[in-house]
Design goal:
By secondary structure, this protein is mainly β. It is built from no helices and 18 strands. The strands form 4 sheets. Strands 4, 5, 6, 7, 8, 9, 10 and 11 form an 8-stranded antiparallel β-sheet that branches. It is globular and about 45 Å long.
């Protein structure tokens, strides 16, 4: 949601990024984000009057972000320190845009955005991950999720303060799609496609937090 309207972004057939805006009754005609090309699906998150869009460029795993403001799209910016594969996952956590990416070494990395640029938050202990990760701000925590290559189960990581150990939880069953983390009211949901081609939806149990 951005400015009380629903936006849908996707990688179009030209390799650019297009989006449609839903008014509640219908979807408006698609528009294209200017001057960007991407290898994978983008990710977006709204913060006040800004809509942040993050994406992977078409060469070298480069990371870019672009901001939509009431005056229009601002020029895209590249971060030379972030290299990754697949799609990024963006959320707002602690009042900051926060992104999860799968590094070129198949580890999960978290960064958040300040005025000076993107700063590292976490190099996760999770490795050997497959497909794109997911990230969400929930309660007072940052939570990420990834698909393990070796067993196709989702692992969620509840990120604590730097002086504490993070919590890890693994799904009982296997999945065949990248994970999706969604906040709804005060609950956190983990969603993905299962091998039987249906949709698995799990709700995080706060009683698991020690």
């Amino acid at each position: 949601m951005y400015q009380n309207r629903l936006f849908c972004f996707y990688r179009d057939t030209s390799g650019g990024i297009s989006f449609s805006v839903g008014s509640g009754a219908f979807w408006e005609n698609a528009q294209q984000v200017p001057n960007v090309l991407t290898s994978d699906a983008p990710s977006v998150a709204a913060l006040g009057e800004q809509l942040f869009l993050v994406l992977r460029g078409t060469e070298g795993g480069d990371f870019y972000h672009k901001v939509l403001e009431p005056s229009g799209w601002q020029p895209h910016q590249r971060d030379p320190h972030i290299k990754f594969n697949g799609s990024p996952s963006l959320c707002i956590a602690g009042g900051l845009p926060t992104v999860a990416v799968k590094g070129l070494d198949e580890r999960l990395y978290l960064f958040n955005f300040h005025e000076s640029g993107w700063a590292p938050v976490l190099t996760s202990a999770l490795n050997d991950i497959y497909e794109a990760p997911a990230v969400a701000g929930w309660d007072r925590f940052l939570v990420d999720a990834s698909l393990k290559r070796s067993n196709n189960h989702y692992t969620t990581e509840l990120v604590r303060s730097p002086t504490e150990l993070n919590d890890y939880y693994q799904t009982a069953g296997a999945y065949t799609s990248p994970p999706c983390l969604v906040n709804y009211h005060s609950d956190l949901y983990l969603i993905g496609k299962r091998p039987c081609d249906d949709l698995g939806i799990s709700i995080f149990n706060p009683e698991c937090i020690k």
